[in-house]
């Protein structure tokens, strides 16, 4: 029977092997760790951040020839799209996908865009969240649209309205709602497209007044949080600072003190006054790491415990395996050249407005 001591010993041996490979390969190897990764992966990562920042960092690090992305699949795909010709991107576990990205299948997107374009008054501009497949990003690039992150969704949507009259926002319904609220888009000008329902579902209506079509998709990590969780936090400490991600439902966002991307959440915790209690509504691995970082100076607590099991699929073992197998295609990320071209166009449009 394996006990905790045995597990710790095994993990220590695997970590030592990873450190050995890193030392041998030097600057030619770059390990990227998303903020939601378990602490053992973060400790071995060369750079830590959100999905787009890591992909951009990889492309900017010209000395790196092998880029190992510890995150979910769409993140590794984004690094592949942005990489330099002499770089190769690897993903330690192909089973680590993103359910929200999968909610916007390219075939469904093509059908939805056609339906909206036929019914809408004016040009339709697709805007896709970074949490999406390379194929959907490429679709947006081909149809005059762009990619956005949770930190620049407002700017991306504003830009889209300079190009057309109607925005199709995919795949996160809640980020779309919270962005539309920020921009003052009227409720009667919005509609929901549900790809799981015939003809977009009963709530899908497009008419002359329609300005925004929101895709029915979500992140289960952030839709887990409720206003009851906030009430509980404020009852325990009325002066606490509540910080949440914009993928949370509108009611939760409305009750929070700070709303922002993963990077913004980290900054809000860092900037909070010593002695303050900060209650954070995002993935538990990040919250626990922030709590450890600020221990003794401020209290960092989870709004509730919400784990991303797909991020958790990246383990020390498969990270080590990917590093030992860089000479083969087993862990190599591949995206078709035409998809890379069009997806890069959508990403470059985002950069141009940022």
Overview of this structure, please?
With 354 residues, the chain is an alpha/beta fold. Helix content is 46%, strand content 15%. The strands form three sheets. It has a five-stranded parallel β-sheet with strand order 6-5-7-9-8, sandwiched between helices. Strands 2-1-3-4 form a four-stranded parallel β-sheet, with helices on both faces. A four-stranded parallel β-sheet has the order 11-10-12-13. β10 (241-244), α12 and β11 form a beta-alpha-beta unit. α3 (51-60) packs parallel to α4 and α7 (134-142) crosses α16 (337-353). The protein is globular. It starts with a helix and ends with a helix.
In a few lines, what is going on in this structure?
With 354 residues, the chain is of the alpha/beta class. The chain is 46% helix and 15% strand.
Tell me the strand order in the biggest sheet.
6-5-7-9-8
Mean pLDDT: 95
Succession of helices and strands: HEHEHEHEHHEHEHEHEEHHEHEHEHEHH
Count of helical regions: 16
CATH topology of the largest domain: Rossmann fold
Radius of gyration: 21 Å
The coarse silhouette is globular
CATH architecture of the largest domain: 3-Layer(aba) Sandwich
Give the tally of β-strands: 13
Q: What's the end-to-end separation, in Å?
A: 54 Å
**DSSP strand (E) fraction?**
15-25%
CATH class of the largest domain: Alpha Beta
Oligomer: single chain
Low-pLDDT parts are none
Largest sheet: 5 strands, parallel
Residues in helix, %: 40-55%
| CATH homologous superfamily title of the largest domain | NadA-like
């Amino acid at each position: 029977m394996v006990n905790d001591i045995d597990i710790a010993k095994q993990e220590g041996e695997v970590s030592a092997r990873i450190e050995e490979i890193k030392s041998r390969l030097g600057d030619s190897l770059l390990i990227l760790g998303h903020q939601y990764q378990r602490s053992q992966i973060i400790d071995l990562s060369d750079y830590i951040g959100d999905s787009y920042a890591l992909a951009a960092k990889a492309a900017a690090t010209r000395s790196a020839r092998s880029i190992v992305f510890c995150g979910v699949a769409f993140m590794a795909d984004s690094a592949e799209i942005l990489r330099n010709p002499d770089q190769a991107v690897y993903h330690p576990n192909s089973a680590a996908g993103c359910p929200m990205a999968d909610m916007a299948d390219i075939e469904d997107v093509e059908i939805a865009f056609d339906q909206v374009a036929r019914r809408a008054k004016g040009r339709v501009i697709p805007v896709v969240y970074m949490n999406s497949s390379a194929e959907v990003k490429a679709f947006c690039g081909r149809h005059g649209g762009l990619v956005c992150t949770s930190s620049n969704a407002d700017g991306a949507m504003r830009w889209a309205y300079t190009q057309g009259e109607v925005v199709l926002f995919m795949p996160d319904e809640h980020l779309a709602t919270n962005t539309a609220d920020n921009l003052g888009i009227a409720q009667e000008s919005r509609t929901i497209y549900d790809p799981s329902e015939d003809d977009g579902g009963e709530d899908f209506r497009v008419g002359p007044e329609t300005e925004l079509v929101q895709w029915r998709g979500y992140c289960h990590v952030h839709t887990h949080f409720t206003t009851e969780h906030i009430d509980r936090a404020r009852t325990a400490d009325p002066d606490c600072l509540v910080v949440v991600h914009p993928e949370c439902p509108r009611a939760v966002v409305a009750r929070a003190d700070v709303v922002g991307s993963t990077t913004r959440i980290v900054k809000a915790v860092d900037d909070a006054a010593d002695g303050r209690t900060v209650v954070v509504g995002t993935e538990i691995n990040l919250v626990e790491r922030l709590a450890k970082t600020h221990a003794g100076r401020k209290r960092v607590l989870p709004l509730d415990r919400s784990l991303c099991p797909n991020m958790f699929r990246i383990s020390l073992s498969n990270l080590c395996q990917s590093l030992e197998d860089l000479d083969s295609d087993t862990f190599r990320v591949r995206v078709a050249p035409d998809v890379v071209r069009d997806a890069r166009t959508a990403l470059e449009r985002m950069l141009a407005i940022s």
